[in-house]
Amino acid sequence: MAKRRVGFCLSDKKRKRMNLTAFADLCGHRGIEVVEIDLCRPMASQGPFDVIVHKLSDVIVEAEHDSQSQHLLANFQEYVSTHPDTVLLDPLPAMTQLLDRFASYRIMNKLQNSLRDRCVCSPPYLEINTSDQSAIREAVERKQLTYPLICKTRVAHGSRSHEMSLIFSPAGLSDARLPCVLQSFVNHGAVLHKVFVVGEAHFTVERPSLKNFPLGPCDRKTIFFNSHEVSKPESCSHLTALDEKTPRLPPPSEDVMVALVRELRAELGMALFGVDVIVNIDTRTLTIIDINIFPGYEGVPQFFSSLLSHIESVLEHRGTVPPPRSPAALPHQAVL
Ligand SMILES: Nc1ncnc2c1ncn2[C@@H]1O[C@H](COP(=O)(O)OP(=O)(O)OP(=O)(O)O)[C@@H](O)[C@H]1O
Ligand SMILES: O=P(O)(O)O[C@H]1[C@H](O)[C@@H](O)[C@H](OP(=O)(O)O)[C@@H](OP(=O)(O)O)[C@H]1O
Ligand SMILES: [Mg+2]
């Protein structure tokens, strides 16, 4: 059989972090050649590719204002449109929607409707595009968002997207940096469950997370933080330190996780993504707070073998994959 070629299009940081060289060795033993794609050179001269695995989130975000990134992206898109048989992990429109929290929160909201009987939800939120303080206060009340609120940048990926804040009162709303989402903070005992999906497989790891806060407005100053300081495996922050008396909740049931991943996989039409969930300490409801494109899979020793199996399965079933559900049917959400 002719050698199959899989191109990888990753940032230097991502390539090193995932140890692509080690993965290429593993693939070599199965007759699959791994090629590192250089987006600065025409892609056609580096092909052909049976599959391309990529994380172009930084390039897509930069291409909004940077002509060099626009050229890199155009090079990629040109190859994709002229080689329709090449399978993309993942399709560009599917992953691009997750770059925008306005879009990904609509997906989370939709998911909570389809998984209602499984007691899965996502916290109420607002899309904020205006600096009109009275309009924001009014919308927070109308939508019955509860304080504290967590404020997240509209752009969901890249180095600037992890700067967040906790807002404790209507007066603190002026600290929100636009455009952003405001989301009700849910007490969850400082435990984050990161679900990492690779094709048909998924793995859950526990991470530190923000500690509990008293419910309701108070005159505390806004807390600014970087999400990577609180929810990486090595994170050790005063914002995650729980009172020792706080009881630990049992982990979410695997049945519910399976249902959640199945629904999300179909909804997104993606194979490499992560979903972050917490368990509400008052209602025990499984609460979705974030969906990530091609995450780090830290703490998942099966990542390489699962990725290889998925690539082999894609190669085997090429041309017979059902199309993803249309992203058009998302509920309307007022933007402020
Ligand atoms: N609604 C919420 N209620 C309680 N805690 C939350 C909520 N949303 C986020 N958090 C906390 O803030 C952290 C960062 O949130 P989020 O996952 O949305 O950020 P991110 O920058 O997109 O993270 P990632 O690195 O996974 O992409 C979470 O790990 C969790 O500790
Ligand atoms: O595996 P987890 O802990 O979920 O962390 C991921 C974050 O969720 C992603 O947001 C990071 O991607 P960006 O650097 O594109 O934001 C992603 O960066 P990476 O693409 O360099 O792996 C990871 O930091
Ligand atoms: Mg994220």
Order of helices and strands: EHHEEHHEHHEEHEEEEEEHHEEH
Q: Terminal Cα separation, in Å?
A: 56 Å
Q: Given the helix and strand composition, which structural class is it?
A: alpha/beta
Give the CATH superfamily of the largest domain.
ATP-grasp fold, B domain
The assembly state of the depicted protein chains is single chain
| Named CATH architecture of the largest domain | 2-Layer Sandwich
Give the structure's gist in a few sentences:
The protein has helices at residues 12-18, 20-28, 57-62, 67-82, 92-97, 101-114, 133-142, 227-230, 254-268, 303-316; strands at 4-9, 32-36, 51-54, 87-89, 120-121, 125-128, 149-153, 163-167, 180-184, 191-198, 201-208, 223-226, 272-279, 286-293. The protein has 336 residues and is an alpha/beta fold.
Essential attributes:
kinase, ATP-binding, five-stranded antiparallel beta sheet, D-amino Acid Aminotransferase, Chain A, domain 1, isomerase, InsP(3)kin_ATP-grasp, alpha/beta, single chain, five-stranded mixed beta sheet, inositol-1,3,4-trisphosphate 6-kinase activity, binds adenosine-5'-triphosphate, 2 domains, 336 residues, 10 helices, binds (1S,3S,4S)-1,3,4-triphospho-MYO-inositol
Report on the architecture of this protein.
- There is one protein chain.
- With 336 residues, this protein is of the alpha/beta class.
- It has two domains: 4-89, Rossmann fold (3-Layer(aba) Sandwich); 97-297, D-amino Acid Aminotransferase, Chain A, domain 1.
- The chain is built from ten helices and 14 strands.
- It has helices at residues 12-18, 20-28, 57-62, 67-82, 92-97, 101-114, 133-142, 227-230, 254-268, 303-316; strands spanning 4-9, 32-36, 51-54, 87-89, 120-121, 125-128, 149-153, 163-167, 180-184, 191-198, 201-208, 223-226, 272-279, 286-293.
- The radius of gyration is 21 Å and the shape is globular.
- 34% of the residues are buried.
- It binds adenosine-5'-triphosphate (ATP), (1S,3S,4S)-1,3,4-triphospho-MYO-inositol (I3S) and magnesium ion.
- Magnesium ion binds next to β14.
